[in-house]
Amino acid sequence: MNPIIELLQAHRSIRKFQDREIPRPLLETLIRAGQCAATSNHIQAYTVIRVTDRDNRARMAELAGGQQHIVEAAEFLVFCADLKRPTEAAERAGAEVIRGMTEQLLVATIDTALMAQNVAVAAESVGLGLCYVGGIRNHPEAVADLLKLPEHVYPVFGMSLGYPAQNPEVKPRLPLAAILKDDHYDDSDAPVRVAEFDETMHRYYLERTGGNKDSNWSRELKPLFTTKLRPHMRDFLVSRGFEMK
């Protein structure tokens, strides 16, 4: 163990924040730390939009399903996959570029996620808290319009960022044996591992809520595969130039 590993293992989502600003130099340092993340072929296919307008914050919170912490956080950042800048740079360098490939979408999305996670770790290292907001994909067209995103740029997720006003427990993770395999994929023990983890999460939810939430990991997954499907995303991405050819 070392301080970095301890920091990573102490991650919690923070949804209540102090009324305290993040100094601009610190924010810029966090973004620079994000830029140091691995990036495919040095493409750096991301842009971060800092939402400062209060009306836009309120609208973003509404679009994301009423997440009030978007309004209350010191900063709300939207991490966008951006293929416009690198594609046009390659064109100016003389390339006959091909747009709309699925691989390009994957590269830009992965680059964005890696960059954001660097920002998250850097933020937590200086005492800040954060919450990722995938809910901005509930209405991606409206979010893109609000942020004036051009073609070949799409909002991947948001991040509420600020000084924590709460101290929630660390949420348990699946046992290592469930996800770490040697040489080949083997899920023969999945039913047992999941059952054990369901019991762990059941105790966690009961203790965290004082007995008001009787659930487990498997039950909490149901909406992801039934209602939280966001079927509009494919058409939205195609409309932004991510044709997935």
TrEMBL record:
Residues 10-163 form the Nitroreductase domain. InterPro entries: Flavin_OxRdtase_Frp (IPR016446), Nitroreductase (IPR029479), Nitroreductase-like (IPR000415). GO terms for molecular function: oxidoreductase activity. It comes from the Bacteria. Pfam families: Nitroreductase. Keywords: Flavoprotein, FMN, NADP, Oxidoreductase. Belongs to the flavin oxidoreductase frp family. This is Nitroreductase A.
